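agent> fetching stored inputs for the FE2/S2 (inorganic) cluster docking request
agent> found them:
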Amino acid sequence: MFLRNFWYVAAAEDEIGRTPFGRMILGEPIVLFRTENGHPVAFEDRCPHRHLPLSMGKLVGDTLQCHYHGLRFAADGRCVRIPGQDHIPKAAKAKTYPVAERYHWIWIWMGDPALADPAAIPDFHWLDDPEWGAKSSYLHVDANWQLIVDNLLDLTHLAFVHETTIGNAAIAEHAQVKVERAPNNVVVTRWVIDQDPPPTYKKVGGFTGNVDRWQIIDFAPPAFLRLDVGATPTGTGAPQGKRIGGISMRNLNAITPETETTTHYFRGQAHSFDVKNAATTNKIFEQVRTAFLEDVAVFTAQQRVLNLIPDPPQVDIAAAAGAIAARRIIDRLAEAERNATQVAAAE
Ligand code: FES
Ligand SMILES: [Fe+2]
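agent> prediction call returned; pasting tokens
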């Protein structure tokens, strides 16, 4: 199940250039490239002539030339050349998708093009804001996209999956947790007060004593999770908004379904201390990467089980409240898209 009328991250900016780049998104094959002046373009990755993936073709000026019989398509998808033939049939047109470039990512709109509004692209400014140091990367994951959303909304798993990196028992046992629900948003706030910092925080933040640690998880559909995380020495007033000393970071996740069982995972890590120091940015990124791969091992293993037993019954616990709220939003939006498609088909 996919939500279509949303922006998704299709690629990192440096993945797309003057060589056609094929990528499956929401089960649809897409080809991306840049025009000569650098604008990103996305087509369905299928030639309207005999269905060869257009990503096998090459760019000739601002046109994409199919590898099979040489039809050329302009950036608006129209066929502008058929070798040996003057007449160009109207149907000779590649399907195009709205695209935008922002926060070092190429975004694609997978639904009704008339509804595509770049103002609806979620805010990931931390990735290119001079006030922050940041680094992002891409990973292909063999798991359904909603398993990743669940993972990020229930951070009690840090105590078990990440006990050597960003987790410790305090996260699960001594947290004050609040779940706030809005029609298209869930925010889970977790405070762990006056507890030992986890291993990664000791390495990155240099803490020697106990800390007050926060994790504020912001979910926006379909699958954007922006985490405000950090810690200060305990008692300095962080829960009241006084973040003095310590470290403050953003863990940024843009999750794009490839198929029902595979996902494109774009993630970034930003920090507001020692901002101009690339060594700090890299150190934090590598530390979080270790934790990230611990998560990937978990949700790919879940997917292997679900491939054998699709849709088994499951048990809910209190810690899953945020994840359950997010699934409700996704289900409601999917239902609305299904109804709108049926109405359109009936008209
Ligand atoms: S399949 Fe593309 S030109 Fe024939
Ligand atoms: Fe995790």
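agent> quick read of the result: Residues 151, 157, 161-162, 291, 295 surround fe (ii) ion (ligand 2) (CB under 6 Å).
agent> awaiting further instructions
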